[in-house]
């Protein structure tokens, strides 16, 4: 008989509901960061753990329930952080199906939900989902204390478990918060790579435009947690205290990269930090260590801001293997950017994008249509800026009030319509439902976003640049990608809405 595992960490899947057909080949499948971080913290304290990455292994709810039964864990932690802040809410779709399947199969199996979404909506998550507990906070401390309580007694009083949200009789109890972990190198190293299906992970298609055959092997690592900025549409702060920003040591970061490089042959990486290019000393030391290590063919992508990328950093970033930087440009309208707490100057945006490209680093421009001050004219300004910049790749998003963001609080206060399902918060789902603005409706925002995507990627100016930069095969790949038009319930229901 299999010995009981203390903790089973589950990364929920559901790509087909989140991305529709795009999830089959184009999107990344990346190692679940917070399963790793919580798992390492728990294992270091003497408990046995297992990780089930249902996204990578393509497990359905019934298969998940059967794996839980086979492992007989003392506690299941369903980890719904996602691979970026906005992904936590959409991950609730797969998490909900999985939790219900487990409870139908194993009614007495204790389950805790952990993640950004549930930290933002702890009481609602406990009431609505088929779980026993919810974590309000980042998770590791809460999970360890809960395992200790469950081992002590099946009738334990959970009042002492920091960060726990639980039922006491018919009342929802929200315990005091768990402290944030300060020593990231010691306590949040995430070194449980041996428990993950490393052969299943792959990079986004665009990261490997130079060579589409190098999407595997792939890994994501982190160098910092949190972000000091306060963008109105961002929900990153939900599981953390205020606007804390914590960094790993550069030596620990490069040691992890070295391990992945030598053990698994990984050369293609994502730096998952919400804002990697922020602290210049931190970033440059990581780059210097990578350069000194003499690694070959590294391909990193990372997030940055227009106002944190300094021209003097670019040569070192490129030498270290940073081949892509993702910039949150958001809008072509200064008025709209200011309203979203993203005060960037138009000329500065153009200058820094050109500086990055001239250093041999490709740029992903991220744009949002439907921010609170947007109208059709300002959205056209955003699309025109995107075409002018002509970044090597672009992401077009609709304005969305994610739980945990200031925009969500505004939407609730003003009675704005929100998606009826968690999948409706996904940018690529069939039932995607953006926020209306003060001047245009959700239908107009979504239609503009979808049309803008196809306009951009079919633009000869863009395609010619791709041919020069990456070759004819990549151009054909992009043209094939752009043939996939997402089905949208909102647009099917109102086909005659103004464009």
Tell me briefly what this model is.
The protein is an alpha/beta fold and 499 residues long. It has 20 helices and 15 strands. The mean pLDDT is 91.
Stretches where pLDDT is under 50 for at least 5 consecutive residues are none
For the sheet with most strands, the description reads: 7 strands, mixed
CATH architecture of the largest domain: Alpha-Beta Horseshoe
DSSP, total strands: 15
Total of domains = 2
Q: Which structural class fits the helix and strand makeup?
A: alpha/beta
Secondary structure tally, helices = 20
Per DSSP, what share of the residues sits in E-state strands of 2 or more residues? 5-15%
CATH topology of the largest domain: pyruvate-formate lyase- activating enzyme
**Helix percent band:** 40-55%
* Integer-rounded radius of gyration: 22 Å
**Main sheet strand line-up:** 2-1-3-4-5-6-7
Task: Determine the CATH superfamily of the largest domain.
Answer: tm_1862 like domain
Query: CATH top level of the largest domain?
Result: Alpha Beta
Distance separating the two termini: 62 Å
| Shape annotation | globular
Mean pLDDT: 91
Describe this structure in words.
The protein is of the alpha/beta class. The chain folds into 2 domains: 7-174, Rossmann fold (3-Layer(aba) Sandwich); 202-493, pyruvate-formate lyase- activating enzyme, CATH 3.80.30. Helix content is 40%, strand content 15%. It contains 20 helices and 15 strands. It has helices spanning 15-19, 33-44, 54-57, 61-71, 87-105, 116-120, 122-128, 140-152, 184-187, 250-264, 280-293, 311-319, 334-339, 346-358, 376-389, 406-414, 442-457, 460-470, 472-481, 489-493, and strands at 7-11, 49-53, 75-79, 111-114, 133-135, 164-168, 171-174, 218-221, 224-226, 245-247, 268-271, 299-304, 322-330, 362-369, 393-398. The chain has a 7-stranded mixed beta sheet, sandwiched between helices. It has a 6-stranded parallel beta sheet with strand order 8-11-12-13-14-15. Helix 2 (33-44) crosses helix 8 and helix 15 runs parallel beside helix 17. The longest helix has 19 residues, at 87-105. The radius of gyration is 22 Å and the shape is globular. The model has no long low-confidence stretch (mean pLDDT 91).
């Amino acid at each position: 008989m299999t010995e009981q595992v203390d903790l089973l960490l589950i990364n929920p899947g559901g790509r087909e509901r989140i991305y529709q057909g795009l999830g089959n080949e184009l999107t990344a499948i990346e190692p679940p960061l917070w399963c790793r971080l919580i798992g390492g913290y728990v294992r270091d304290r003497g408990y046995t753990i297992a990780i089930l990455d249902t996204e990578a292994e393509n497990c359905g709810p019934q298969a998940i329930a059967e794996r839980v039964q086979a492992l007989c864990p003392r506690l299941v932690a369903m980890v719904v952080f996602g691979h970026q802040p906005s992904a936590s809410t959409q991950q609730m779709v797969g998490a909900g199906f999985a939790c219900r399947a487990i409870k139908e199969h194993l009614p007495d199996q204790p389950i805790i939900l952990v993640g950004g979404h549930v930290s933002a909506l702890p009481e609602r998550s406990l009431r609505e989902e088929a779980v026993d507990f919810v974590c309000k906070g980042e998770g590791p401390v809460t999970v360890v204390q809960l395992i200790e309580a469950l081992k002590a007694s099946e009738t334990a009083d959970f009042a002492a478990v920091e960060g726990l949200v639980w039922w006491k009789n018919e009342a929802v109890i929200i315990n005091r918060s768990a402290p944030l972990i300060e020593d990231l190198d010691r306590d949040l190293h995430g070194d449980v790579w041996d428990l993950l299906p490393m052969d299943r992970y792959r990079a986004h298609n665009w990261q490997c435009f130079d060579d589409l055959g190098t999407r595997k092997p792939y890994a994501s690592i982190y160098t910092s947690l949190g972000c000091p900025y306060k963008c109105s549409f961002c929900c990153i702060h939900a599981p953390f205290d205020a606007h804390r920003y914590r960094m790993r040591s550069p030596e620990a970061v490069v040691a992890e990269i070295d391990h992945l490089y030598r053990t698994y042959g990984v050369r293609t990486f994502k730096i998952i930090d919400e804002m990697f290019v922020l602290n210049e000393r931190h970033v440059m030391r990581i780059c210097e260590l990578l350069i000194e290590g003499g690694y070959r063919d590294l391909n990193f992508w990372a997030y940055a801001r227009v106002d944190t990328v300094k021209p003097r950093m670019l040569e070192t970033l490129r030498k270290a293997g940073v081949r892509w930087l993702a910039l949150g440009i958001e809008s072509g309208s200064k008025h709209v950017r200011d309203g979203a707490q993203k005060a960037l100057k138009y000329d500065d945006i153009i200058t820094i994008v050109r500086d990055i490209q001239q250093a041999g680093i490709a740029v992903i421009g991220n744009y949002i249509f439907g921010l609170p001050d947007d109208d059709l004219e300002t959205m056209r300004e955003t699309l025109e800026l995107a075409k002018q910049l002509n970044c090597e790749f672009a992401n077009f998003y609709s304005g969305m009030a994610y739980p945990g963001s200031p925009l969500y609080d505004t939407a609730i206060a003003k009675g704005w319509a929100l998606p009826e399902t968690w999948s409706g918060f996904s940018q690529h789902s069939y039932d995607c439902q953006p926020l209306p603005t003060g001047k245009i409706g959700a239908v107009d925002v979504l239609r503009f976003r979808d049309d803008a995507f196809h306009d951009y990627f079919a633009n000869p100016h863009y395609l010619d640049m791709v041919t020069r930069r990456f070759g004819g095969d990549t151009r054909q790949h992009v043209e094939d990608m752009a043939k996939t038009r997402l089905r949208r319930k909102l647009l099917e229901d109102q086909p005659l809405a103004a464009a």
